[in-house]
Amino acid sequence: MPGWLRQEILDAYAGLGGGAVAVRSSATAEDLPGAAFAGQQDTYLNVQGGDNVVQAVANCWASLWTDRAMAYRRRQGINPHEVAIAVVVQKMVPAAMAGVLFTANPVTGERSEMVVDANPGLGRPWSPGG
User: Fold this and answer.
1) CB-neighbour burial class of residue 108 (10 A; exposed 0-12, middle 13-18, buried 19+)
2) What is the pLDDT of residues 32-56, one digit of tens each?
């Protein structure tokens, strides 16, 4: 990682006031009709300290190219040269519950049905990689 980029990440983290953050992906091929991509890129929760944040950002960005993510895109027929990823760093909140709201039933595809999948805490069980 270039030194200037590392410094940008450190400055942005300091601007959040330090403390625990979540480092998560936002990829161009996520949440497409018929392909949710939940858990395909890596998420890091409760990351603390500048060096750890920089490492988590690098790992999150690199997770676009894991075997798991590439195989999923291949099965979905997505051209690997047409995907990109951004990495979001945000303050952690003390979560009592976490989950996902699907605005169409993920099993049947029925768009008039919404499905909520939630559990106590940070929600790790419902999103294996993220």
Assistant:
1) exposed
2) 555 555 556 788 999 999 999 999 9
Q: How many CA atoms lie within 13 A of 120 on its CB side?
A: 0
**Taking the alpha carbons of 35, 78, 39, 61 in that order, is the dihedral positive or negative?**
negative
Q: What letter represents residue 72's amino acid?
A: Y
Strand blocks (E) in 50-129: 85-91, 97-102, 115-120
The neighbouring-strand residues paired with 47 are 21
Do residues 117 and 102 lie in contact, with contact meaning Cβ atoms separated by under 8 Å?
yes
Domain spanning 3-93 has what CATH number?
Answer: 3.30.1490.20
Model-level pTM?
Answer: 0.73
Q: Is residue 39 a contact partner of residue 20, using CB atoms and an 8 Å limit?
A: no
